[in-house]
Write a structure and sequence with these properties.
By secondary structure, this protein is of the alpha+beta class. It contains two helices and four strands. The radius of gyration is 11 Å and the shape is globular. The termini are close together.
Length: about 70
Amino acid sequence: MRRESKGRGGKTVTVVAGCLLEEDGLKELLSDLKRRVGSGGTIKEGNIEIQGDFAEAVLKELEKKGFKVKRSGG
């Protein structure tokens, strides 16, 4: 999991990469995360992207769902 803003017009997104889930599982996880943080998001190249800086909230939600999460970057 990481935050990105480079190449996005100054906007920050929270990226969840490396989820070993099928497409349907990613869509369900994306929906749960968007609902949890109250923001939009999408799936690009197998990564979940949540609009905004929600690293802590996403981290807690993923851990609650049983995922082992490692933060990268700042």
